[in-house]
């Protein structure tokens, strides 16, 4: 399995945690932007990160719909996989998510 989302949801911030290609990741949307970080296998050093502004108002990102957050996480996992020269996230699962 290439990826696994352990948790996604919440408001102010919207957060997601899981694993991508054996590395822990953390997603956070708050204020007017979101961040996605992948850590080394010990979970201490960021080895990949993405950031983008999101929404039109100052606090829109904190109210991002869960489906949008999941789509962003999947896109970021794909980019991380490409950076590792490995397969894309098609082989994962996310229990409890549509």
Using only C-alpha atoms, the radius of gyration works out to 13 Å
Q: Return the string of H and E elements.
A: EEEEEH
Helical proportion, percent range: 10-25%
Distance between the termini: 18 Å
Low-confidence stretches: none
Question: What is the approximate shape?
Answer: elongated
**What proportion strand?**
35-45%
Description:
The chain starts with a strand and ends in a 15-residue tail after the last helix. It is 18% helix and 38% strand. The model has no long low-confidence stretch (mean pLDDT 89). The protein has 98 residues and is an alpha+beta fold.
Summarize this structure briefly.
The chain has 98 residues and is an alpha+beta fold.
What secondary-structure arrangement, pairings included, does this model have?
Elements: E1 3-9, E2 14-20, E3 23-30, E4 33-39, E5 46-53, H1 66-83
Antiparallel strand pairs: 1-2, 2-3, 3-4, 4-5
Keywords:
1 helix; 98 residues; elongated; single chain; 5 strands
């Amino acid at each position: 399995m290439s990826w696994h989302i352990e948790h996604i949801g919440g408001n102010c911030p919207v957060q997601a945690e899981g694993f991508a290609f054996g590395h822990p990741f953390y997603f956070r949307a708050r204020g007017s932007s979101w961040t996605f970080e992948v850590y080394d296998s010990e979970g201490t050093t960021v080895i990949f990160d993405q950031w983008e502004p999101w929404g039109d108002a100052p606090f829109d990102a904190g109210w991002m719909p869960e489906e949008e957050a999941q789509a962003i996480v999947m896109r970021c996992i794909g980019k991380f996989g490409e950076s590792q020269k490995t397969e894309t996230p098609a082989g994962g699962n996310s229990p409890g998510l549509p």
